[in-house]
User: Fold this.
Amino acid sequence: MENPKHATETNIALLVKNLLEKSRMRFHRHCVILAGAQPWCHASLKKIAEHNALNNLLAAATTPLDISNSRQINPSDAPHYLGHEYEHAVIDFFDGIDPNALGSLSGSISGGGLLILLMPPLETLQDFADPEQQRMAIWPYDAKNVGRRFLQRLKKIIANSGDVTLIQENQPLPDHSATADTADLKGYLQNDVCRTVDQKRAVDAIGHVVRGHRRRPLVITANRGRGKSAALGISAAKLLQQGVKRIIVTGPRLNAAGTVFKHARTLLNDALLASGSIVTSTGCLEYIAPDVLCRETPACNLLLIDEAAAVPVPILHRLLQRYSRIVFATTTYGYEGTGRGFTVKFQETLDRETPGWHALEMELPIRWAPDDPVERFVFQCLLLDATVAETGFAFDAHAITVTKLNRATLIEDENLLSAIFGLLVLAHYQTQPRDLRYLLDAIDLDIFVASCNGVLVGTALVELEGNLDKTIADAVHRNERRVMGHLLPQTLESFAGLRHASQVKYARIVRIAVHPGFRRQGIGHQLLQHIETDAHQRQVDIAGSSFGADSSLLSFWHSAAYFPAHLGLKHNAATGTHAISYIKALSDQGGKFVEAAVAKFNSRFSFMLAEAYQDLECDVAAKIYKTFTQGQNLQLSKDEWNDITSFATAGRGYEINSFPITKLISHLFEQGKIDRLCSFDEQCILMKKVLQRLSWQEIITTLGLKGKRDAIAKLRETLCKLINDESVKHIIKIADQ
Assistant:
């Protein structure tokens, strides 16, 4: 006779049945961990499914699990299932313990369901040959050199968590004899299309965006499962029923907007349905990708942006400029991007351009009941609720101390780990759960922290790179090989074409984050100074960073005496910007490469603006020009000056006089005159037409002008302002002949 407390397959299935009954009564989700050899885990899972009829189950695993009524996917595809809803989910951690997969799939489970994790025995977890470690193995290391701190921390959390049921092979079953109460329905609505008071407030606020004043955008933030996307769909349906003609929804992918369409369809029974659109007799709701919206700017009565934190900020900025009635909705603690960081980073833009914007946060969950065990467990594992210190303490810029951490202390000091990760989340809105594992375990990574009176106010992550052997360096130079990691040295060796540049040592600042309440207080520069001092002591030759080219970031790096060495040819899909590399010499040997790289970049930038960098943002291009070493006064012939003047003040055409105009404008950007004398729109027409050489039609579309005549008049007016300014005349030398 089987021991009822022993972990046999049958007893495990009966235990899970009991857990399911309690979870359904409370409308909670429950996490079950099967820890043992992989065959035992798979067999136990199959028995659980047979006894409990786990319908509508999503499983992330590479080995076939043989479970009926389930959908099995590759774990790497887990992020594509954001926004989908399943009763249960299984993750086979034998394929790799991927924080992104855990975050993504746990959010897809509805109340009363199970999250089942399959993993090695808990006592051996930190020694597990985790396939995920290979992702972090930079040259010349392999997976065994990657840290184990993430696994150590996970083991500790599981062992001490009251939110999971841990079932281990050859171990007694855990005791779960406690009774369960029914779900707390306070704040939930009955007989209403909206499930909670929060959701009803959101629907009403979205309606006000359409009916109220223009240029009053709404920002909705919510943890996953709060009905945020459903609120967008309900609002869209109601507005169409009220006669609104066209509503556009956008987001990172069409399938990510599936929840919006699902809830709109429930209220529009007579509508025509198609992929990415719902058409009624009077209006339509349709999905259009963010880049298409920026390129074509189709008219609409309302623009809904779902999962806004997963859309690059430059694209959001362009949409904000082009649409007067717009709703941004994003997950507060997301798996593609973090709403907290998004709100902080984008708030400056909203404050500047649409000061009447409104914020609304949805707190009450809909997909499951409050105080959900799975949510608590996943938040703890992935630090999704990491926060930074409050600003109400005695800050003193002169009392800041910077230290380099021993990463071993982070798994012993959860508060410090949370504070560091919280800063990274706020500073970089696309921080992902996987970044937590990188923070703990990446090879050759140093963490610097800045504190004031014991409070963390800044942090920086620094990775040691370079020192490639000659054979590999030669292959990289010929563009025949890339090695894992070593971003800066391979960029200079291959893209910048500097032979042997990858054979010197680099300190790459991967991330630098300052508390949003204490920016522009010199904290970032103090972090850089300590990083450079430490790197110099370790005989590093070059310090640098690679990041999305944003004008404010360019100013920061230039003010610290770093200079651009390479600019990516295309927009990065994640950031919506061109990747740019800034470098600084720390040794004589490094100085030779830095000087060569910067000179080469400067000499080619103006030429490449008209081809490779035609889509580069005006303010970014202008900031890059200002990093150039200011040379002699510009010398123009009398004919060249007359040609410029004849276009600006008379009726001569632009194209026939474009060469001397280009010389003048390029020089004025280098001298920093343009931003002091011209408005942003005037700078843009100079950059886009003169230096980036867009067609007149592209200028009209990009700058929102009425037509070619308007564009030419704008360019002439701007040139007149420049050539008549005394400070401009002072730096222009006109030859006698």
Observations:
- Residues 197-362 form a domain with the Rossmann fold fold (CATH 3.40.50.300).
- The chain has four domains: 9-168, 197-362, 397-618, 634-734.
